[in-house]
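Annex B.
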Amino acid sequence: MVDGMVGTGTGGEPESSDSLRTFGAVVQGLREHAGLSREEFGELVRFSKHTVASVELGRRMPDPEFVQRAEEVFGRTGALQRAAGCLERQPGLAAWFRRWAALERTGITMCTYECRMVPGLLQTQSYVRALAADNLPPLADQQIEERWAARAERQKLLWKRPNTAFSFIVEEHVFLRRTGGKAVTRDLLDHVLEISRLRNIEVQVMPLVRESHSGLQGPFHLLETPENQWFAYLEGQESGQLVTDRKVVSVLQRRYARMRAQALSLDDSVSLLQRTRGDL
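Helix-turn-helix transcriptional regulator: predicted structure tokens.
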């Protein structure tokens, strides 16, 4: 999820990263230079051709035995051994989300509509833990910590980029659900109210009763780059899509503009959140 927009990868393999893909490309280049097919190379290093493919495509962290045996095949130069020491998995961020996360770091306008959960940039540690508790397949403690660490790192943007305009529209029922219990929800509401006081951040609540609603097709995110180019991001279960088509982005921009008018005003949104906090 985007804002559970962290993942565990697929097939039990670690999530890809630039360093993994670079390492894999080097292995592939050396293998092809040696005139070996993946199957032939796999026999020499005693790993299947499918494992070789996963390493070369940057989808799998190479086992130490793989690196050592590959060194022997390629003449023991030590290059792969040194490169393996620099590999990173980029834990905590789902593979499909990383391009969007990279855009976030430079965006000058960011808009988020969410109807499933509180957006990741507004979440608290206890809320993230509550979300992780319901994850299937279950997450290990380390994965939960990585999930929160990645989320907390992204949230620094709210303070580090005071000239970036952040807009959030969140459905009222997301707060009323009390994910994690009353204590977690109280902490979450206090956090959202505090963040809403920042000059560059607008938080609006879409009320429960709303006869006209332009966001019924689901959550989405919009972002403007310093070059004034707009992108959108859509996310489903175990997948995400970065949208670059200007026509599609334009449609989403118009929907978001309409929802801003349909949601409660900034002041009324704060008042509602305060009342919700007082009812806990």
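Residues 246-262 form the longest helix (17 residues). Confidence is low (pLDDT under 50) at residues 4-15. Further annotation is deferred to the next reporting cycle.
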